[in-house]
Amino acid sequence: MKKLFHFFFFISISIWSQSENEFIKKYSSYLKIIDQKIKNEKISVESNIQYFDSLLNSFQTKDYYLKNVIKLYKASQERRINPKKAQQNIDEVSLYIAQNPTFIQLELFKNSIEARIEFEINQNCEKSYKIYDETINKLAKYKQIFSGWNISLESKTGIINSLLCLQKDQEALEYLKQLEKEIDPKTQFKEYVYVLNVSGYIHTKFLNYVEGEKYFKKAVSLLENNKNYLNNYLAACNNLAHIYKSTNKTTESIQILEKALIKAKQINDINSILLIQNNLGFLYIEQQNYLKAEQFGLSILKIAKEKEFKIHKANANRLLGTAYYNLGDYKKSEKYLDEAIAFFRNFKNPELLRNTLDIKNKLFIKTEKFEAAAIINAEIIGMLDSVNLSKNVQNLQRELVAFETEKKNNEITILKQNEEIINFKMQQQQQQIQFLVLCLILILIFGGIIFWYQKKINKIKNFSLRSKLTRSQFNPHYINNAFTALQAELVNYNFNEHLIDFTSNISRFSRLLLESTFKDEWTLFEEKQMIENYLKTQQYRLQNGFQFHITSTLKLEEFHKIKIPSAITQAALENAIEHGGFKSDSNDGIINIHFTIINNQLLITINNNIIGEPIPFSKKLNNEPSRGLDITKQRINLHSKIYKSLASFNFIHLKNEVKVEFYLPIISI
C-alpha cells in the first residue's frame, strides 16, 4: 500500500499540460493491472467497486484524467448491481469530457459503458445503437486506441446486439460475419464464444432449433469449466434452456438453468440472477410445482428495486399471478397480474401482455366474473396476430372499396378484347385468298378460346360475388362468443382446467378456419397458427395419443410475407390424425411439420409414423380423407396456373411412415 501512495504522490507533482496519448502511455502499465483485475471473474463485483473507491479516496492529485478513467472502470462494474450509481459516474465523466473535447479515447470508453447500460438495463435499443454507431464511426478515423479498454470489439458486439433487439436481423448477421472473419478462435477465445452465442441466437429466432442447439451446446461445453467467462456461459445457458423449453424438454431446461443460477450467484450478477429466476419460475409452473415458482417470484421482488430492473419485476409479478392462480389464491393472483399488465401496456410488449391477460381471463372465468372474462377474451383475440390481422383488415377494406372499380375494369378489358377480335378479323379479310382457309381456322380457334375465357371470368365473378355476400352476412366473432359461453358452463359444472383450455384452443382454431373460408389465400404464418391450434385440439381429443413438432429454416419475417392457399395443409393433417393409427394415452404417435425453401420453392413437409392401413391416393368412393387430398391437389394445380409457377403435391406411403409434401411457388404479399 505504501508503494501505491508513493506512486500517486509521484504523479501528483508531475502534472503538466499533456495530450491524451501521453497520459495513457504514462499510466499504461497501471491501467493494464486494472484491466487484468476486472477480467478476473473470481473477484466479485462488490470487491472491484470497493477497490476503485479506495483508489479514488486514497490519494490527492491534480490528474483529473486518471480519476475519470477510474470512475469509468467503477461504472463498468456498478452497472451490474446498481445502474443508477453507474450512470452518476458516467454523468460526472461527461462533464469532464465536455471541458476537454480532445480526450477522444476517454469519450469512446465512456460511450461503450453507457451504451451497454442503455441496452441491458434500460432496454433502449435505439439509443444504444446510436451510441455504438457513433463510436464505430469515430474509431474509423482514430488509429491509436488503447487496447486495454477493448473499445472496438465492445462497440461491434454492442451494435450487433442492438440490431437484433431492433429486429434488423440481416444487418446484424452482416456485422457478425465480418467479426467472425476478424477473430482467431485460439487467441481470441472470448470473441469466438460470442460468435457462437449470437449465431445460435439467430438460428433460434428463425426457429431453426437444431442448429441453434448445436451452437449453444458447443459454447456451454467450452465454458463450463472456464472461470474467466461466466457472463458468456450464462448467456449460452439461458439460450439453450429456451430451445429446450420450445422443444418440450422442460426437465433439461430446468437442469441447465439451475447450473447457470449457481454461477450467476458466484459473481453476484443481479441482472442475470433475476432473469434466470424468472425463467426457472415459469418452468416450474409447467411442472405444476407452484410453491417453487412462488419462491422464485418473491425472491425476485425482494432483490429488484422500484426504479431498477423493471422488466424483471414485471415478469416476477406475472409469475406470482400465475402461481397463485394455480394455488387457488385468486385475490393475490389478481393483484400481481394487474401490476404486470400495467407495466406491459406501457412497455408495449404484446406477447407478454397477451400471456398475462390470458391468465387473468382464466381467473375471471374461475371466479364466475363472466362479463369481465368476455372483455379480456375479446382483447386477447384482438391481439392475436396483430400484424397479420391488421393487414387482413386493410386488405378487406381495399377489396370492398375496389370491388366496383374492379368490375368496371373487367368490363373495359372485355370490350378491348372484343375490339381486338374485330380488328384481327378485318386484318385477316385483307389477306390473300390462298390463306383464307387457314385464317378461318385460326379465327374459330381464337374465338373458342375467347368464349372459354369469357365463361371462366363470369364464373369467377359470380363466385366472388357469392363469397362477398357470405362474408357480409356472417360474423366470425359469433363462434368465439359461443365458446366463451361454453367455458362459463364448464366452470359452473366443475369441469377440469384442461377441458377449459381445450375449448379455448378450439375457439381460436374455429376462428382461423372461418377466416380461411373468406379468402383464397393467406400468409404462411396464419397457416402455421392454424396447424398448431388444430393439433392441440386433437391432442386433447386423443388424450395425448401423439406428439407434434414444428420446425423451420425460414426467418420470422418470411412467414409474414409469403402467401399460400388458405388451409392447404388441413386435409393432410386430418388424414394423418384420423388414419394414423394413434392410440389414446400413448406417446408413440409423432407428427413432424417442417417449413423450408428449396430451389426457390416453398416446401411444407408433414410426416407421421403411421401404423394403420394404407389409404390409396386414388380412392374415391365415400372416403373423406381421399377426397380431401384430391381437392387439395386440385387447389394446388389451380394455384400453379394462376401464378404460372410450378407447384406439386406428393403423398408418399412408406413402411412405417406417411409423408406429404407441398411444393408451392414463393409468392410475396
Automatic annotation (TrEMBL):
GO terms for cellular component: membrane. Residues 468-544 form the Signal transduction histidine kinase internal region domain. One of its GO terms (molecular function) is phosphorelay sensor kinase activity. Residues 386-413 form a coiled coil. TPR repeats lie at residues 314-347. This is Signal transduction histidine kinase internal region domain-containing protein. SUPFAM superfamilies: TPR-like. The keyword Magnesium does not apply. InterPro entries: Bact_2-comp_sensor_kinase (IPR050640), HATPase_C_sf (IPR036890), Sig_transdc_His_kin_internal (IPR010559), TPR-like_helical_dom_sf (IPR011990), TPR_rpt (IPR019734). Keywords: Coiled coil, Membrane, TPR repeat, Transmembrane, Transmembrane helix. The chain crosses the membrane at residues 433-453. The lineage of its organism: Bacteria, Pseudomonadati, Bacteroidota, Flavobacteriia, Flavobacteriales. PANTHER family: SENSOR HISTIDINE KINASE YPDA (PTHR34220:SF7).
